[in-house]
Amino acid sequence: xxxxxxxxxxxxxxxxxxxxxxxxxxxxxxxxxxxxxxxxxxxxxxxxxxxxxxxxxxxxxxxxxxxxxxxxxxxxxxxxxxxxxxxxxxxxxxxxxxxxxxxxxxxxxxxxxxxxxxxxxxxxxxxxxxxxxxxxxxxxxxxxxxxxxxxxxxxxxxxxxxxxxxxxxxxxxxxxxxxxxxxxxxxxxxxxxxxxxxxxxxxxxxxxxxxxxxxxxxxxxxxxxxxxxxxxxxxxxxxxxxxxxxxxxxxxxxxxxxxxxxxxxxxxxxxxxxxxxxxxxxxxxxxxxxxxxxxxxxxxxxxxxxxxxxxxxxxxxxxxxxxxxxxxxxxxxxxxxxxxxxxxxxxxxxxxxxxxxxxxxxxxxxxxxxxxxxxxxxxxxxxxxxxxxxxxxxxxxxxxxxxxxxxxxxxxxxxxxxxxxxxxxxxxxxxxxxxxxxxxxxxxxxxxxxxxxxxxxxxxxxxxxxxxxxxxxxxxxxxxxxxxxxxxxxxxxxxxxxxxxxxxxxxxxxxxxxxxxxxxxxxxxxxxxxxxxxxxxxxxxxxxxxxxxxxxxxxxxxxxxxxxxxxxxxxxxxxxxxxxxxxxxxxxxxxxxxxxxxxxxxxxxxxxxxxxxxxxxxxxxxxxxxxxxxxxxxxxxxxxxxxxxxxxxxxxxxxxxxxxxxxxxxxxxxxxxxxxxxxxxxxxxxxxxxxxxxxxxxxxxxxxxxxxxxxxxxxxxxxxxxxxxxxxxxxxxxxxxxxxxxxxxxxxxxxxxxxx
Length: 756
Description:
Blueprint: H1 20-27, H2 75-85, H3 89-102, H4 107-119, H5 123-136, H6 141-153, H7 157-170, H8 175-187, H9 191-204, H10 207-223, H11 227-240, H12 246-253, H13 258-271, H14 276-288, H15 292-305, H16 310-322, H17 326-336, H18 344-356, H19 360-373, H20 379-391, H21 395-408, H22 413-425, H23 429-442, H24 447-459, H25 463-476, H26 481-493, H27 497-510, H28 515-527, H29 531-544, H30 549-561, H31 565-578, H32 583-595, H33 599-612, H34 617-630, H35 633-647, H36 650-662, H37 666-678, H38 685-696, H39 700-713, H40 718-728, H41 733-746, H42 748-753
Helix pairs in contact: 1-16, 2-3, 3-4, 4-5, 5-6, 6-7, 6-8, 7-8, 8-9, 8-10, 9-10, 10-11, 11-12, 12-13, 13-14, 14-15, 15-16, 16-17, 16-18, 17-18, 18-19, 19-20, 20-21, 20-22, 21-22, 22-23, 23-24, 24-25, 25-26, 26-27, 27-28, 28-29, 29-30, 30-31, 31-32, 32-33, 33-34, 34-35, 35-36, 36-37, ...
């Protein structure tokens, strides 16, 4: 017979159904989420201290009236049950162990031993006793219920559901399996499933059990945004059981703002200053307000009141992890798992620490250990593993992990959402769509899934559905800025400028420093012909962000159209100072200088515009026109060179090269000799003049190459023979003589003229 470990003298929570929601939420923050802060803090499930809680979460042992059991007449049984009720667990354990030796294979006695092991936080031994109880009596409902809750506590929701369904099949009118099943669904944020199970419990239960079912159903309604229904359930639960503080706390949590939440929680704490859940939830609210130090104090107070409660310790571990207090996290984890060393949660939290420290490979291995310990049934670990794999770009691996999480928990909203993100990253848009829609079906208020689904439909070209889902986001949260902004862009793209204007104006009423919204409002006003309002909106965007180049540029365009040349010049110059790579800005500034007859200033800007964009035909033509007005021959030639590069033929290119050569712009001339050849200019002359330009630049080897290329076109090209003779006269007299001989043979008069 196994001996249970010594129990603590401090009375813990009876395995509080704490915020597993928070565990999942905090772990899921590794994901690339695109959503606004929820209006309601999504918090997990805390329960009252055992001494004031109205319902013991685990099912007490009992026997059928038709089969009372011989052991019940034993005086030791009476002593054991009395000790159990008085929390004298060691005495109770010894007595029940003696009884089971006297009366082997009694389901009730084994169930009692399982409950004692539970209270001693020895989960493996507890599970063993419950399973033995079912071997002795296959239809023993308390053991099924207790195994369900134990599995739920370990995160094995599929396994837990199976146990609860077995209990329901045996006792369909027993509210307890429905209640526990509903609470389990709350823990994993399966709100609709929770409402279904808890509604059944409410129909069947009375008194304290009904109050508890109402409290948790209220939580589910609240997290789905059905606040009125939630408050009705909380009020009814409080009326049924006035000393039951949990619904009072939940009502406080669903207040409209954080200050109201704190005030309402404080009222509950006035009823019982040592009510640990009140301190815990106070910490949740403070943390959401960024008051980290104060939140930590409240969490620690909750744990101080219940020092052996492992669920609060898990929340504390997570709190320290996300605030990079790893030493404290490890201390708490050591406390949490001191009596359950085989728990996969130990490895799960270690993995989260490694992930937080950017030790991705080690974190993945640790998640795998957690999954192995849980026999594969660890949806949160699968989810977080998938998130890490996606961060590494391993989309196929992440998809497999998300699918495993969903296999274990079919209504796992976060897994469906992240699966959609992975498919979207792989451009498997239809699969992504299905997953977003599934996440929304699980939680109709999932605003981040709605938003991404809208973006997805936009990418797929279905603007009508994109608009529908952006509006759905705003129906859930009218202050969701990203959705409002994108809806405004959507209206603008379909040229519904009035609707776009209204959308941006509404957005700016909520966030008046949203620079891009001011910019887009200006675009709408311009399209609607409200130039003065457009100018004001651009100026507001610039006031908020003086580096907003597009706003400076558009404002310059507006002033240019309105004839305010000096203002336009100033705004274009401001934009150019911020972005020197925009050729259009240079062109627009040049046009303003042209209006002032500042042609040289205009030419400088046009020159720079063409340098930035050599194919900028409008700028090149304007450059040439202004150069001709100024009679600046150098600028005319340069502008002409760029113009011919876009529009000229071989002969025009050659003519331009000759003009540039004559004007001693040798480097540019060389470019145009090459372009003339590229465009089809034949014969020796472009090569000859190319060689001559190189010679004038002192580049003798390149000059020789040019002359030789000319001679390959015409072996007796007079001027190429002559230049080669001169260049070789001192360095290679024999080669020079060969070129001279060809000149004498073919051009005797030329030789005589040159005195060769």
